[in-house]
Amino acid sequence: MRVLYFSRDYTPHDYRFLSALAETSHEVFYLRLEDKGLELEQRRLPGTIEEIDWWSVRRPFIWRDLPRSLFFLRSLLDRLKPDLVHAGPVQNPAGLVAAVGYHPLVTMSWGSDLLVGADRFLGRSVAKYTLKRSDVLVCDCQAVRTRAEELGMRSDRIVVFPWGVDLDKFSPGESEHLRQDLGWQSNLVLISNRSWEPLYGVDQVIEAFIRGSEFLPQLRLILLGDGSQTDQIRGRIETAGLTDRVHIGGQVENDDLPEYYRAADLYVSASHSDGSSVSLMEAMASGLPALVSDIPGNREWVVPGEHGWWFETGKTVSLVDGLKQAVESESEFDSLGERARQRAAERANWQVNFQHLLEAYDLARAGKG
Asked: For residue 246, what pLDDT is reported?
Protein backbone atom coordinates (compact mmCIF):
# COMPACT_ATOMS: atom_id res chain seq x y z
CA MET A 1 0.00 0.00 0.00
CA ARG A 2 1.22 3.50 -0.84
CA VAL A 3 0.84 5.89 2.09
CA LEU A 4 1.34 9.66 2.09
CA TYR A 5 2.22 10.77 5.63
CA PHE A 6 1.57 14.54 5.80
CA SER A 7 2.56 16.45 8.94
CA ARG A 8 2.98 20.07 9.92
CA ASP A 9 6.65 19.84 10.95
CA TYR A 10 9.25 17.19 11.69
CA THR A 11 9.13 16.25 15.37
CA PRO A 12 10.21 13.28 17.51
CA HIS A 13 6.63 12.01 17.25
CA ASP A 14 6.81 12.07 13.44
CA TYR A 15 10.12 10.25 13.57
CA ARG A 16 8.60 7.53 15.70
CA PHE A 17 5.55 7.03 13.47
CA LEU A 18 7.66 7.05 10.31
CA SER A 19 10.18 4.61 11.82
CA ALA A 20 7.39 2.20 12.69
CA LEU A 21 5.81 2.58 9.25
CA ALA A 22 9.21 1.92 7.68
CA GLU A 23 9.15 -1.52 9.31
CA THR A 24 5.91 -2.42 7.52
CA SER A 25 5.49 -3.52 3.92
CA HIS A 26 3.93 -0.17 2.98
CA GLU A 27 5.57 2.31 0.62
CA VAL A 28 5.59 5.55 2.60
CA PHE A 29 6.07 9.11 1.39
CA TYR A 30 6.62 11.98 3.80
CA LEU A 31 5.35 15.51 3.20
CA ARG A 32 6.20 18.35 5.59
CA LEU A 33 4.09 21.51 5.57
CA GLU A 34 6.62 23.85 7.19
CA ASP A 35 9.94 24.13 8.96
CA LYS A 36 9.87 26.50 11.92
CA GLY A 37 13.58 26.14 12.48
CA LEU A 38 13.20 25.00 16.10
CA GLU A 39 15.37 21.92 15.62
CA LEU A 40 12.54 19.72 16.83
CA GLU A 41 14.09 16.49 15.57
CA GLN A 42 17.67 15.94 14.49
CA ARG A 43 17.46 12.28 13.47
CA ARG A 44 17.28 11.61 9.77
CA LEU A 45 14.25 10.05 8.20
CA PRO A 46 14.29 6.25 8.13
CA GLY A 47 16.01 5.10 4.96
CA THR A 48 12.95 3.63 3.27
CA ILE A 49 10.85 6.78 3.69
CA GLU A 50 10.82 9.08 0.65
CA GLU A 51 10.54 12.78 1.48
CA ILE A 52 8.65 15.11 -0.86
CA ASP A 53 9.45 18.81 -0.82
CA TRP A 54 6.60 21.18 0.00
CA TRP A 55 6.86 24.32 -2.09
CA SER A 56 7.17 26.72 0.90
CA VAL A 57 8.56 24.44 3.60
CA ARG A 58 11.21 26.91 4.77
CA ARG A 59 8.68 29.33 6.23
CA PRO A 60 5.56 28.94 8.37
CA PHE A 61 2.32 28.16 6.56
CA ILE A 62 0.03 31.18 6.20
CA TRP A 63 -3.55 31.13 4.98
CA ARG A 64 -2.94 33.47 2.04
CA ASP A 65 -0.88 30.59 0.63
CA LEU A 66 -4.03 28.44 0.53
CA PRO A 67 -4.78 28.57 -3.23
CA ARG A 68 -1.21 27.73 -4.19
CA SER A 69 -0.99 25.05 -1.49
CA LEU A 70 -4.17 23.36 -2.70
CA PHE A 71 -2.93 23.43 -6.30
CA PHE A 72 0.39 21.87 -5.25
CA LEU A 73 -1.29 19.22 -3.10
CA ARG A 74 -3.83 18.27 -5.75
CA SER A 75 -1.06 17.90 -8.35
CA LEU A 76 1.02 15.81 -5.96
CA LEU A 77 -1.85 13.47 -5.14
CA ASP A 78 -2.67 13.06 -8.83
CA ARG A 79 0.95 12.07 -9.43
CA LEU A 80 1.51 9.81 -6.40
CA LYS A 81 -1.95 8.26 -6.28
CA PRO A 82 -1.50 7.02 -2.69
CA ASP A 83 -3.84 4.34 -1.44
CA LEU A 84 -4.27 6.38 1.74
CA VAL A 85 -3.33 9.77 3.18
CA HIS A 86 -2.41 10.04 6.86
CA ALA A 87 -2.50 13.72 7.81
CA GLY A 88 -2.46 15.87 10.93
CA PRO A 89 -2.85 18.12 12.84
CA VAL A 90 -6.51 18.55 12.03
CA GLN A 91 -6.65 22.18 10.95
CA ASN A 92 -3.50 22.22 8.80
CA PRO A 93 -2.32 19.18 6.81
CA ALA A 94 -5.55 17.24 7.29
CA GLY A 95 -7.61 20.32 6.47
CA LEU A 96 -5.74 20.79 3.20
CA VAL A 97 -6.30 17.16 2.19
CA ALA A 98 -9.98 17.47 3.08
CA ALA A 99 -10.22 20.60 0.95
CA VAL A 100 -8.96 18.81 -2.16
CA GLY A 101 -11.40 15.96 -1.45
CA TYR A 102 -8.92 13.09 -1.40
CA HIS A 103 -9.96 9.71 0.06
CA PRO A 104 -9.32 7.67 2.04
CA LEU A 105 -8.14 10.24 4.58
CA VAL A 106 -6.94 9.20 8.03
CA THR A 107 -6.82 12.39 10.07
CA MET A 108 -4.58 12.34 13.15
CA SER A 109 -5.30 14.74 15.97
CA TRP A 110 -2.31 16.02 17.90
CA GLY A 111 -4.44 16.80 20.95
CA SER A 112 -4.30 20.57 21.24
CA ASP A 113 -5.59 21.04 17.68
CA LEU A 114 -9.00 19.92 18.95
CA LEU A 115 -8.72 20.62 22.69
CA VAL A 116 -7.49 24.21 22.19
CA GLY A 117 -7.46 25.12 18.50
CA ALA A 118 -11.12 24.20 18.00
CA ASP A 119 -12.20 26.64 20.72
CA ARG A 120 -11.68 29.55 18.34
CA PHE A 121 -14.19 30.25 15.57
CA LEU A 122 -11.91 29.65 12.58
CA GLY A 123 -10.21 26.67 14.22
CA ARG A 124 -13.57 25.15 15.11
CA SER A 125 -14.98 25.71 11.63
CA VAL A 126 -11.96 24.15 9.92
CA ALA A 127 -11.98 21.23 12.37
CA LYS A 128 -15.65 20.50 11.71
CA TYR A 129 -15.07 20.74 7.95
CA THR A 130 -12.07 18.40 8.12
CA LEU A 131 -13.68 15.82 10.40
CA LYS A 132 -16.77 15.67 8.19
CA ARG A 133 -14.54 14.74 5.25
CA SER A 134 -12.27 12.32 7.12
CA ASP A 135 -12.75 8.60 6.73
CA VAL A 136 -11.15 7.88 10.12
CA LEU A 137 -9.84 9.97 12.99
CA VAL A 138 -7.02 8.66 15.15
CA CYS A 139 -6.39 10.31 18.51
CA ASP A 140 -4.51 9.55 21.71
CA CYS A 141 -7.05 9.92 24.51
CA GLN A 142 -10.73 9.92 25.40
CA ALA A 143 -10.77 13.68 25.96
CA VAL A 144 -9.88 14.26 22.30
CA ARG A 145 -12.39 11.63 21.20
CA THR A 146 -15.16 13.41 23.12
CA ARG A 147 -14.24 16.75 21.56
CA ALA A 148 -14.21 15.22 18.08
CA GLU A 149 -17.66 13.76 18.62
CA GLU A 150 -18.90 17.19 19.75
CA LEU A 151 -17.58 18.58 16.47
CA GLY A 152 -19.50 16.00 14.46
CA MET A 153 -17.12 13.06 13.99
CA ARG A 154 -18.88 9.70 13.99
CA SER A 155 -17.88 7.61 16.99
CA ASP A 156 -17.50 4.43 14.92
CA ARG A 157 -14.89 6.18 12.75
CA ILE A 158 -12.62 7.12 15.66
CA VAL A 159 -9.65 4.97 16.72
CA VAL A 160 -8.14 5.85 20.09
CA PHE A 161 -4.68 4.76 21.21
CA PRO A 162 -1.96 6.45 23.29
CA TRP A 163 1.13 6.98 21.16
CA GLY A 164 3.07 5.08 23.79
CA VAL A 165 6.76 4.65 24.57
CA ASP A 166 9.56 2.11 24.25
CA LEU A 167 9.21 0.26 27.55
CA ASP A 168 12.66 -1.26 27.24
CA LYS A 169 14.35 2.10 26.81
CA PHE A 170 12.24 3.94 29.40
CA SER A 171 12.43 1.77 32.47
CA PRO A 172 13.28 2.18 36.17
CA GLY A 173 16.94 2.25 37.11
CA GLU A 174 19.70 4.17 38.82
CA SER A 175 21.29 7.22 37.24
CA GLU A 176 24.66 6.23 35.82
CA HIS A 177 26.41 9.53 36.48
CA LEU A 178 24.22 12.65 36.10
CA ARG A 179 22.91 12.86 39.64
CA GLN A 180 26.35 12.28 41.10
CA ASP A 181 27.92 14.80 38.73
CA LEU A 182 25.41 17.39 39.91
CA GLY A 183 26.08 16.55 43.56
CA TRP A 184 22.36 16.02 44.17
CA GLN A 185 22.43 12.54 45.72
CA SER A 186 20.70 13.76 48.91
CA ASN A 187 18.22 16.13 47.23
CA LEU A 188 14.70 15.69 45.93
CA VAL A 189 15.06 16.13 42.17
CA LEU A 190 12.21 17.26 39.92
CA ILE A 191 12.23 16.93 36.14
CA SER A 192 10.39 19.09 33.60
CA ASN A 193 10.92 18.49 29.90
CA ARG A 194 8.04 20.19 28.14
CA SER A 195 8.56 22.78 25.40
CA TRP A 196 9.10 26.31 26.67
CA GLU A 197 5.89 27.59 25.14
CA PRO A 198 2.91 29.21 26.94
CA LEU A 199 0.70 26.15 26.35
CA TYR A 200 2.94 23.91 28.45
CA GLY A 201 3.26 26.06 31.57
CA VAL A 202 7.02 25.69 32.09
CA ASP A 203 7.09 29.29 33.31
CA GLN A 204 4.62 28.24 36.01
CA VAL A 205 6.82 25.30 37.00
CA ILE A 206 9.74 27.72 37.43
CA GLU A 207 7.70 30.14 39.51
CA ALA A 208 6.43 27.34 41.77
CA PHE A 209 9.95 25.95 42.12
CA ILE A 210 11.26 29.37 43.15
CA ARG A 211 8.51 29.84 45.73
CA GLY A 212 8.77 26.27 47.00
CA SER A 213 12.54 26.52 47.40
CA GLU A 214 12.03 29.17 50.08
CA PHE A 215 10.75 26.53 52.51
CA LEU A 216 11.82 23.33 50.71
CA PRO A 217 15.57 23.90 50.30
CA GLN A 218 16.16 20.26 49.34
CA LEU A 219 14.41 20.75 45.96
CA ARG A 220 16.42 20.60 42.76
CA LEU A 221 15.19 20.82 39.16
CA ILE A 222 16.30 19.20 35.91
CA LEU A 223 14.93 21.48 33.20
CA LEU A 224 15.07 20.26 29.61
CA GLY A 225 13.86 21.79 26.36
CA ASP A 226 13.66 25.29 24.95
CA GLY A 227 11.26 27.50 23.03
CA SER A 228 9.91 31.02 22.68
CA GLN A 229 10.03 31.62 26.46
CA THR A 230 13.75 30.85 26.77
CA ASP A 231 14.87 34.35 27.73
CA GLN A 232 12.01 34.74 30.21
CA ILE A 233 12.64 31.41 31.93
CA ARG A 234 16.41 31.70 32.09
CA GLY A 235 16.13 35.27 33.34
CA ARG A 236 13.71 34.32 36.10
CA ILE A 237 16.02 31.57 37.37
CA GLU A 238 19.00 33.91 37.38
CA THR A 239 17.08 36.73 39.09
CA ALA A 240 15.96 34.32 41.82
CA GLY A 241 19.57 33.27 42.40
CA LEU A 242 18.80 29.59 41.88
CA THR A 243 21.11 28.71 39.01
CA ASP A 244 22.93 26.26 41.29
CA ARG A 245 19.66 24.41 41.98
CA VAL A 246 18.49 24.13 38.36
CA HIS A 247 20.25 22.04 35.72
CA ILE A 248 19.31 23.40 32.28
CA GLY A 249 19.99 20.60 29.84
CA GLY A 250 18.55 22.12 26.65
CA GLN A 251 17.27 19.85 23.90
CA VAL A 252 18.24 16.27 24.71
CA GLU A 253 18.56 13.46 22.20
CA ASN A 254 15.90 10.79 22.65
CA ASP A 255 18.50 8.12 23.39
CA ASP A 256 19.84 10.23 26.27
CA LEU A 257 16.47 10.92 27.90
CA PRO A 258 16.32 7.77 30.09
CA GLU A 259 19.36 8.93 32.06
CA TYR A 260 17.60 12.18 32.92
CA TYR A 261 14.45 10.43 34.12
CA ARG A 262 16.56 8.06 36.23
CA ALA A 263 18.34 11.01 37.81
CA ALA A 264 14.99 12.45 38.98
CA ASP A 265 12.54 11.61 41.76
CA LEU A 266 9.38 13.35 40.54
CA TYR A 267 8.00 14.37 37.15
CA VAL A 268 6.25 17.77 36.97
CA SER A 269 4.07 19.19 34.19
CA ALA A 270 1.90 22.32 34.30
CA SER A 271 0.55 21.92 30.77
CA HIS A 272 -2.69 23.78 30.09
CA SER A 273 -3.73 21.23 27.47
CA ASP A 274 -2.63 17.71 26.61
CA GLY A 275 -3.81 14.49 25.15
CA SER A 276 -1.86 11.48 26.36
CA SER A 277 1.44 13.24 27.00
CA VAL A 278 4.37 11.19 25.73
CA SER A 279 6.75 12.75 28.28
CA LEU A 280 4.34 11.78 31.07
CA MET A 281 4.24 8.22 29.75
CA GLU A 282 8.04 8.14 29.53
CA ALA A 283 8.33 9.32 33.12
CA MET A 284 5.80 6.78 34.37
CA ALA A 285 7.50 4.01 32.42
CA SER A 286 10.74 5.10 34.13
CA GLY A 287 9.10 4.55 37.51
CA LEU A 288 8.53 8.20 38.48
CA PRO A 289 5.49 9.49 40.35
CA ALA A 290 3.96 12.54 38.66
CA LEU A 291 2.69 15.94 39.79
CA VAL A 292 0.55 17.21 36.91
CA SER A 293 -2.09 19.78 36.08
CA ASP A 294 -5.69 18.70 36.51
CA ILE A 295 -6.70 18.45 32.85
CA PRO A 296 -8.65 15.63 31.15
CA GLY A 297 -5.65 14.11 29.36
CA ASN A 298 -3.64 13.84 32.59
CA ARG A 299 -6.59 12.47 34.55
CA GLU A 300 -6.63 9.48 32.20
CA TRP A 301 -3.14 8.54 33.41
CA VAL A 302 -2.52 9.81 36.92
CA VAL A 303 -4.79 8.78 39.78
CA PRO A 304 -4.03 10.85 42.91
CA GLY A 305 -2.53 8.69 45.62
CA GLU A 306 -1.88 5.89 43.12
CA HIS A 307 0.59 7.39 40.65
CA GLY A 308 1.11 10.93 41.95
CA TRP A 309 -0.94 14.09 42.38
CA TRP A 310 -2.93 16.73 40.52
CA PHE A 311 -2.89 20.49 41.04
CA GLU A 312 -5.27 23.15 39.79
CA THR A 313 -4.44 24.11 36.21
CA GLY A 314 -2.87 27.54 35.87
CA LYS A 315 -2.65 28.09 39.64
CA THR A 316 0.92 28.50 40.83
CA VAL A 317 -0.17 28.41 44.47
CA SER A 318 -1.80 25.03 43.88
CA LEU A 319 1.39 23.72 42.27
CA VAL A 320 3.44 24.94 45.25
CA ASP A 321 1.03 23.11 47.55
CA GLY A 322 1.48 20.03 45.37
CA LEU A 323 5.24 20.22 45.75
CA LYS A 324 4.85 20.45 49.50
CA GLN A 325 2.52 17.45 49.53
CA ALA A 326 4.95 15.45 47.38
CA VAL A 327 7.86 16.24 49.72
CA GLU A 328 5.78 15.16 52.69
CA SER A 329 5.01 11.89 50.87
CA GLU A 330 8.58 11.16 49.75
CA SER A 331 8.56 7.84 51.60
CA GLU A 332 5.81 6.68 49.21
CA PHE A 333 7.72 7.46 46.02
CA ASP A 334 8.86 3.88 45.45
CA SER A 335 5.35 2.44 45.64
CA LEU A 336 3.91 5.29 43.56
CA GLY A 337 6.63 4.74 40.97
CA GLU A 338 5.98 1.01 40.82
CA ARG A 339 2.30 1.62 40.12
CA ALA A 340 3.19 4.27 37.54
CA ARG A 341 5.44 1.79 35.75
CA GLN A 342 2.70 -0.84 35.84
CA ARG A 343 0.17 1.59 34.33
CA ALA A 344 2.59 2.50 31.56
CA ALA A 345 3.30 -1.16 30.85
CA GLU A 346 -0.42 -1.88 30.57
CA ARG A 347 -1.41 1.09 28.43
CA ALA A 348 1.64 2.77 26.89
CA ASN A 349 3.44 -0.02 25.04
CA TRP A 350 4.34 1.57 21.70
CA GLN A 351 4.88 -1.76 19.96
CA VAL A 352 1.33 -2.80 20.85
CA ASN A 353 -0.33 0.58 20.36
CA PHE A 354 1.13 1.19 16.90
CA GLN A 355 -0.88 -1.74 15.59
CA HIS A 356 -4.03 0.31 16.17
CA LEU A 357 -2.83 2.79 13.54
CA LEU A 358 -2.66 -0.01 11.00
CA GLU A 359 -6.17 -1.04 12.04
CA ALA A 360 -7.27 2.57 11.39
CA TYR A 361 -5.76 2.33 7.91
CA ASP A 362 -7.75 -0.83 7.22
CA LEU A 363 -10.93 0.81 8.49
CA ALA A 364 -10.41 3.82 6.24
CA ARG A 365 -9.73 1.70 3.18
CA ALA A 366 -12.81 -0.40 3.84
CA GLY A 367 -14.82 2.62 2.77
CA LYS A 368 -16.26 5.80 4.18
CA GLY A 369 -19.21 5.12 6.46
From this structure: 97
Decide if 169 is inside a domain: no
Q: Do residue 35 and residue 158 come from a single domain?
A: yes
Domain, as residue range, for 101: 2-164+350-365
The answer to whether the CB of 80 falls within 8 A of the CB of 100 is: no
pLDDT mean across residues, the chain: 93
Q: Which residues pair with 143 in a beta bridge?
A: none
The pLDDT value given to residue 176:
83
Number of other residues whose CB lies within 10 A of the CB of residue 101: 10
Task: Mark the ranges of the chain whose per-residue pLDDT is less than 70.
Answer: 36-40, 56-59, 368-369
Kindly state whether residues 15 and 151 are assigned to the same domain: yes
- What pLDDT does residue 59 have? 65
Residue 274 lies in a domain: yes
Q: Are residues 25 and 114 in the same domain?
A: yes
User: From residue 197, how far is each of 120, 202, 255, 310 by CA, in Å?
Assistant: 19, 7, 23, 21
Q: Residue 214 maps to which CATH number?
A: 3.40.50.2000
Instruction: Give the per-residue pLDDT at 369.
Output: 43
**How far apart are alpha carbons 64 and 68 in whole angstroms?**
9
Q: What is the pLDDT of residue 71?
A: 92
Q: What is the 3-state secondary structure (H, E, C) of the chain?
A: CEEEEEECCCCHHHHHHHHHHHCCCCEEEEEECCCCCCCCCCCCCCCCCEEECCCCCCCCCCHHHHHHHHHHHHHHHHHHCCCEEEEECHHHHHHHHHHHCCCCEEEECCCHHHHCHHHCHHHHHHHHHHHHCCCEEEECCHHHHHHHHHCCCCHHHEEECCCCECCCCCCCCCCCCHHHHHCCCCCEEEEECCCCCHHHCHHHHHHHHHHHHCCCCCEEEEEECCCCCHHHHHHHHHHCCCCCCEEEEECCCHHHHHHHHHCCCEEEECCCCCCCCHHHHHHHHCCCCEEEECCHHHHCCCCECCCEEEECCCCHHHHHHHHHHHHHCHHHHHHHHHHHHHHHHHHCEHHHHHHHHHHHHHHHHCCCC
Strand-strand pairing, 105-108 and 266-269: unpaired
Check: CB of residue 311 under 8 Å from CB of residue 295: no
The reported pLDDT for the residue numbered 245 is 97
